[in-house]
Amino acid sequence: MKVVRIMKNNLIIRHSEDDKVGFQININKEIELILPKFFDQVCKDNECKSKEHIYFYRLFKKYLYRKNYQQNSVKRDEKGFSIYKSSEKSKIKNYSLIELYFSLLYDYEENDILVFKEKHKNMSGNGNADWKTTLIRNNPIINDDNIVYDGVYYNNYRTNERHPITQLYLFTISEIYKKLHDNTIIPYYSYDFHKFKDIEYSLYMINKYRYNFFKDREVKVLDILESIYSMEAKLSNFTNNKKKLIYVNKFDYIWEHMCKFSLKSQDKICNKLFKNGKYVLCEKNEKGEEIIRRGHRPKGDVFIETEYEGENYLLILDAKNYSVYHDDYAHFPGTADIGKQFLYKYFLSKKYDEKNDYCLSQIVNAFIFPGILEEESTIKYFAHHRFGNEFDYEKDILCFCIDFYKMRDSYLNYKEEFRSDVIGYILKQFISKRKR
After folding, report:
1. Domain co-membership, 344 together with 402
2. Cβ atoms of residues 247 and 24 within 8 Å
3. Are the CB atoms for 216 and 86 separated by under 8 Å?
4. Average model confidence (pLDDT) for the chain?
5. pLDDT per position as a tens digit, 164-179
6. Residues 136 and 271 placed together within one structural domain of the fold
7. Is 256 a member of any domain?
8. According to a count of CB atoms within 10 Å of the terminal CB, is the N or C end of the chain lower?
9. How far, rounded to the nearest angstrom, does the alpha carbon of residue 347 sit from its chain's CA centroid?
């Protein structure tokens, strides 16, 4: 489809300076794609980068979709774009401006111009007879036993290509193409297009005609147009010399969510293994009883219970967005992350409580990083964090780089084979260290 071609060839690519990734509209009203930092290290050629537009768009959409809505609340086509229904107006307003732009382009390219048919009354015999209007507007002449009318009114439908909503639709499509550096020619009909540059006027026209249309496509387009101009009204409050961030989020959160979904994190383990803490105040109440304040339940990224070679294991994986292509320690997890991993492993082991299910030798601590590996590789063991000597493997936190492309593919279309490969590889490396 043309929209996909535009996204591959016309969007501007930049790399994140603050770990935020997504789409933005710059001061020149151009749409830019902001990529994670590690892409700058491994993806040098333009051909490599140009392929990322559509995949990152789908990735961001799925992240927001899974974060905010139930899995099946919004249907999607084979490209991962939303298929809106008229009953989903409230959901449309929650989608980003970028998604609304591309949804409108897809509507135009799949269905052509949105035109409306209006009822037209005539006395020339075109259409179906309108007896109600005929009776109201004509004085019948009774001749013998016959009723004679001056003329009969008929109803037929005419396509009105100059309808204000049709013109607003075309104007909006044209403006989106400009943002994408695309020179597609939109068929303009005689209308004062400059009026639509006034956002308030555009919203007024949408509300004026909203209840004139009832077909699914008409309602859908009106909902999208209303959302676009409502969001652009908010953006207009930004000063002109600032970049306007539209569809962004910290890549740390996205990578964590990708890992949790693609590796099927068993979040119920947290509820089963971790109990809510509590604070017991030193003072007592009037009855001499302890004063209890609710504490917090520990929460991790990815927890997996599995069996491997006849033995049960617990994997505690922490998804970290650090570039493995840098040499200094600043690009590895710090004290807080390391301490948390040690705490979880100790807290869930028999060493802390004999009632727990796992010995230290059955609990795998690991950091998982994004990277781009050789074509056939899914995951690579490249380091470990250690406090003790080489025989204190139980204190090690293993470091793995997972191929970002394969993780993304599994995130967009879940693959059990990917999950099995990753878990199997991690356990194999852990067991090999244990046998030394």
Report:
1. yes
2. yes
3. yes
4. 77
5. 888 899 899 888 888 7
6. no
7. no
8. C
9. 35
